[in-house]
Amino acid sequence: MADDVRDDAPRRDYQVIGRRIPLIDSWRKVTGQGPYTDDLKLPGMLVGKILRSPHPHARILAIDTSAARRLPGVHAVVTGAEAPAKFGVLPVSQDETAMAVDKVRYIGDCVAGVAADDEETALAALRLIRVDYQPLHPILSIDDALQPTTDPIHRHSKKANIHKQVDQEFGDVDEAFRASAFVERERFEFIGVTHAMTEPHAVIAHYTADGRLTIWSAQQVPHYLHRALADVMQMEMHRIRVIRPMVGGAFGGKSDPFPHEMIAALLSRGCGRPVKILFDREEVFLTNHGRHPTRTEMALGVDADGKLTGLDLDAKIDGGAWGSFGVVTTYYNGVLSMGPYRIPRFRYHGTRVYTNKAPCGAMRGHGAVNSRFAMETLVDRLAEKARLDPLQFRLDNLLPAHTTTVNGFRITSNGTRECLEKVRERSRWDEQHGKLPYGEGLGVACGFYISGSAHRIHRNRFPHSTVHVKIDMDGGITVHNLAAEIGQGSDTMLAQCVAEPLGVKLDRVHVYARNTDTAPFDLGSYSSRVTFMAGNAALRAGEVIAAKLVQAAARLTGRPAEGFVLRDEQAIYAPDPTVVVSYMDALHEAMAENGALVAKGIYQQPPPMGGNFKGAAAGLAPSYSFQAYVARVEVDAETGFVRVAKVWAAHDCGRALNPLAVEGQIEGCIHMGLGQALVEEFPYVRGGYILNANLLDYRTLTARQMPEVEVILVESNDPEGPFGAKECGEGPLLPILPAVANAVYDAIGIRMTSLPMTPDKILSALERRAAGRPRPVLQPA
Amino acid sequence: MPKRLITLDVNGAPREVAVRPHDVLLDVLRENLNLIGTKRGCDMGTCGCCTVLKDGRPTLSCLTLVLDCTESRIETIESVARGTDLDPIQKHWGSEGGSQCGFCTPGFVMTTRALLRHNPSPNDDEICSAIAGNICRCTGYVKILAAIRAAAAEIRGTAPVEPTRG
What angle do CA A404, A408, A410 make, to 5 degrees? Predict the structure, then answer.
């Protein structure tokens, strides 16, 4: 047992935890019955369409909607002036409005909405809306945005088009570098990438005569939508009901309250009919919210003993037109570099700028991906400078378990060492790294990610998650919560966490996690928080009901309650296992006095943690996940084409509540991360238009481009996770990009500093090197 | 533009629908016939979510004019299960973890159905060729391949073909 993996926790013979369990809602998917939002039809429902800005930056002088309003079949038209209240997912950057009020800020910005009997009429109405624009100079690059300006994109930008700046320093980094044996510096360029979920955004709003609003929306964060709707519609929250139908992929791309949701609500309030807005694929691309384009400058030092000395990091981040999650992104680009290595000194400057492009926001691995690429590249370079094996060098610099980082992160369980040892062994690293023929290579990289955010976005004292459980006389178990099932398996996880303490079959449990009228609130599916927080709340609720069943069994048998365990749908008296009460008998006895069993479980803020400085809360998590990957690549030096042949992916998820689902998350992360590493990019052409606003030209990897993946689950058994579990949905994306880049270096001796690593970049790097020194002779296969 | 009544053979039954010349099959299936199992992912033929079988061949219903279907047999995801008895493809898709968000699944299931009718024991290379037009953003395709191998084996009644890739 590795020294940093806990082995003192009691091992239990779980019945549903740790089993390979198909998702409980998979029948809805394999039959196509859903329903996803666009599958829903309401009587009298209208088609909503949005007029979008053709300009990247322009003042709106006048909007004339009179002709559109007169068109037969049009039932409502709305513009920005009717709902000027600001909103945004973060209370600290409320900079969005439902539609443009005075200016448009990117191509695709919402200007007006119409609701009509059918799509043709709605589109005809959009063409009848006259907007008088005064084009303004568009800001389309980080460099332009950093120039001083008197007419910023947002009035609240004080100097230049800057949205957020972060400055943090822990110890004297310059002194650390002076005392270092080697310091490696590099500048990295990362173009934006986007979620490309298969389901386009969709919403239905119905404002009814009782003054209530119901919204069905493909959402990861129904609770934040609920709050934002109340602000924009100027309604009390309890008069608004948010329902989340099935969600066809999200990855962070459905984690903001959106203008189109506000527009649907305003249109419905304008005519009293249900209104559906469904994006076409171009609109999905135009509104983006994907990973921020970033320029990362990093320096990392190592001393003569092979220990890391300090990290200096500067990130310039292109936020696009709105704030979205950008304040968090700006912090995360720095602070999520503080694991899994021990780094005694750290300095970070982060700057997020506004530009006249679609807003960037949260995307799987939020804020950590680009800095991780830089970090793992420099770790590799330092190991080479110090003439150390890069995998051993990582092992020699790891944070231990149960420690605190220099910036105040409380590290609990930490399985990185076991992750590295496992991929070293499985990939036959020691025999192969640095020893493969030219064109083939092996690369290693680690990762580190939050398992939920310890602090709430909104300042209040509510629990992060609450789960209600009800059992009535039929023995069925109903679970209510607002964590959003987006395909990651959260409904199945909630069912498991309730079923296990009750000792019942999983199919007794029915999860209702989609309706703010019936579900106690949960903050939603972001920052990899659901298993840790909602899972803990579900487990607590299950335990409360388990105690009632045990007491009932004790009453029925005259034995002490402490002796009973619940399993196999029975209460079994452990000291004499012939004493058994069936689940239904125990339930009916427990119900005799008070009726249906109801219980509540919460996940509250973890214990106080973190330092006392500005931004100390950013990146603080109740627990962290850790990864180590090895990738094997083949690089064709003639074409520049990189083929990833195999990935050994070790991930410390604390405990795999459902290994089938955990593997699926890791494999999906590798797919998305490889896309950013090899092909995906989101380029803007002059004039502020996206060059490839469709799935064909955006080029997500197909089945044929996926490597063989060997998933290795490391279970470090987190002391605060439910059954020891931590996150598995985002951290596993981080190591794949630098592992491939480090493997490319092992294969052809080229360090890539810009993503994606397309053949043209590989070839020009090879040509630059050839101009400097002779190209290595290709070895015969 | 005036509508015209046509009869489509959908899932083995004649369905009368009023259509315009430019209507595509996807719209008619979802909006007129309420067959919402066929998903709308892009309307541009780039994602494969709307795949149905037209005379047994996987076809993007978003790019298919409905007037081109009057002489054809159309099969949608709704025809795959018998009542509530899932087809082996659907069963193994669930048990192997082939669906996460599930939005792409109906299109994949239809593509797989056509593949296994023509080739009951496809190797991984043949599977990858068959599903190259279907995008999944969740699974990395690893468990989709596993589901197809397992379904093929059950339909053939023999052990699954050994994976040659992830």
Answer: 45
A282: nearest CA in chain B? B42
- Where does A604-640 show beta strands of DSSP type E? 624-636
Tell me the pLDDT tens digit for each residue of A718-734. 999 999 999 999 999 99
| Angstroms from A305 CA to nearest CA on chain B | 40
User: What tokens were used for A320?
Assistant: 């696009």
Q: What angle do CA A620, A626, A628 make, to 5 degrees?
A: 150
Measuring CA to CA, how many Å separate B41 from each of A200, A205, A285, A553, B47?
A: 6, 21, 13, 53, 6
Task: Let me know if A547 is exposed, middle or buried by CB neighbors in 10 A (0-12, 13-18, 19+).
Answer: middle
Query: Which two three-digit tokens encode residue A168?
Result: 């943090």
Q: E strand or H helix at A64, and its extent?
A: strand A58-64
Query: Is residue A5 scored above 60 in pLDDT?
Result: no
| Count helices and strands in chain A by DSSP H and E runs | 20, 31
The count of structural domains within chain A is 3
Mean pLDDT of all residues in chain A? Answer: 96
Answer whether residue A469 shows pLDDT above 90: yes
If you compute the radius of gyration of chain B from its CA atoms, what whole number of angstroms results? 16
CA A511, CA A477: separation in Å to the nearest integer?
Answer: 8
CA torsion through residues B65, B66, B70, B75, sign:
positive
User: Counting Cβ atoms within 10 Å, is residue A171 exposed (0-12), middle (13-18) or buried (19+)?
Assistant: middle
Separation of alpha carbons A576 and A413, rounded Å:
37
Q: Report pLDDT for A7.
A: 43
Kindly report, residue by residue over A760-778, the tens digit of the pLDDT: 999 999 999 998 865 454 4
Answer whether A250 sits within 8 Å of B101, measured CB to CB: yes
For A353-377, what is the mean pLDDT? 98
Give which of A205, A229, A363, A214 is closest to A278, Cα–Cα.
Answer: A205
Extract the runs of DSSP E, i.e. beta strands, from A218-336: 240-243, 275-278, 294-302, 308-318
Q: Which of residues 134-163 of B touch A (CB under 8 A)?
A: 135-145
pLDDT of A75-112, one tens digit each? 999 999 999 999 999 999 999 999 999 999 999 999 99
The answer as to CATH 2.60.40.10 being correct for domain B88-156 is no
The answer for A681, left when phi > 0, alpha when psi is -120 to 50, beta otherwise, is: beta
Q: According to the model, what pLDDT value does residue A3 have?
A: 39
Contacts of B34 in chain A (CB under 8 A): 41
A267 touches A117 (CB < 8 A): no
Q: What is residue A512's DSSP assignment?
A: E
Domain residues for the domain of A107 are 37-136+202-247+254-271
Contacts of B43 in chain A (CB under 8 A): 280-281
Q: Are A746 and A438 in contact (CB under 8 A)?
A: no
CATH of B4-79, one of 3.40.50.1360, 3.10.20.30, 3.40.50.300, 3.40.50.970: 3.10.20.30
Angle, vertex CA A302, rays to CA A299 and CA A306, nearest 5: 150
Same domain? For A373 and A447 the reply is: yes
What residues of chain B lie within 8 A of the CB of A23, using their CB?
94, 97, 99-100
> Across-strand partners of A243?
A216, A515
Output the CA torsion A37→A40→A45→A47 (10° steps): 40
If DSSP codes are grouped into helix, strand and coil, which group holds residue A401?
A: coil
At A773 the pLDDT is: 60
Residue A730, CA distances (Å) to A356, A388, A455, A472 in order:
28, 30, 19, 37
Angstrom distance (rounded) from CA B141 to CA B138? 8
Tell me the per-residue pLDDT of B93-114, one tens digit each, with 9 for 90 and over: 999 999 999 999 999 999 999 9
A696 contacts B46? CB cut-off 8 A: yes
- What is the Cα gyration radius of chain A? 27
| Mean pLDDT computed over B43-62 | 98
The ipTM value here is: 0.97
